Amino acid sequence: MSLLAVLTADQTAARLPFPSLCDAVAAAARDYAAGRITSPERQVLPLPDGGVLLSMPATAADIAIHKLVNVNPGNGAKGLPTIHGVVSAFDALTGAPQLILDGPTVTARRTAAVSMLAIRTLAPAPRHVALLGAGTQSAGHVAALAALFPGIRVDVHSRSLDSAAAFCAKQAGQGVDLRPMSGAVDPAAEVVIALTTSLAPIYDETPRPDRLLVGVGAFKPEMAEFGPTAVHGSELFVDDPAGARHEAGDFIQAGVDWTTVKSLVDALDGRATDGRPRLFKSVGCAAWDLAAARCALGQG
After folding, report:
1. Which residue of 16, 94, 182, 266 has the fewest C-beta atoms within 10 A of its own C-beta?
2. What are the residues facing 157 on neighbouring strands?
3. What's the DSSP call for residue 38?
4. Spatial separation of the C-alpha atoms in residues 184 and 206, rounded to whole Å
5. In which domain, by residue range, is 22 found?
6. Do 133 and 241 fall within a single domain?
7. Same domain, 74 and 201
8. CA 21, CA 277: separation in Å to the nearest integer?
């Protein structure tokens, strides 16, 4: 019996190049919408000291995956990462394990890939993007933008200009024009990507047809990054329509009419209204982890 490969974070990233990963997520989105991928809502189990274990399985005809992620808020004081986890991939026909990937790396890269698909379909060829937040997800998005839009200007907004500058210094050398920012988003930014866990909206400008809004960080009903002005003035898209009804706090708090909300597949198929502002909300689901596992196995 061959040894099961257990990949480090760097090895996992190397197996998930963004051009291939974006294509894999796009294919998985169509499979998921057509019922060819089963991806139930994630289970949340309690851990000591406010931690949680998140269980996210998904299956398709070719592959099965199970992502287990532990979120332990007290780890920062111990000098440890807040999030640990793995994504296990299995052959769907035999059930044999094939690969174990680093969970946080998979999450960061597949989440960024979903955002890149939104940009590719709803705001093609941007030259100037603003990131709201300077954490792990923002780092993943910088890497994705560097891979797909070399030389693009990326403004980074954080709680302070110092923290934004520190983030930019750490992410330097990737071939994008990183600029630490404070205050309002530059009017020239064509895409604004929110990557925080804010409980109150951090952006609520009147939406514009020439600026795509992408919400990533808020993943619980009590969280919101975009306010009602931005939400109600935009044509709305979500990556996972089923999960968004329970997790997309921006939309839930704004009281959207869910019958008008379009899907990632709608965006991929060009079903956006010309001349309307657009807001894409990403809540994530295990189908995107399955896409990442497919990509990783294909790169092996």
Report:
1. 94
2. 132, 181
3. B
4. 13
5. 5-106+287-299
6. yes
7. no
8. 27
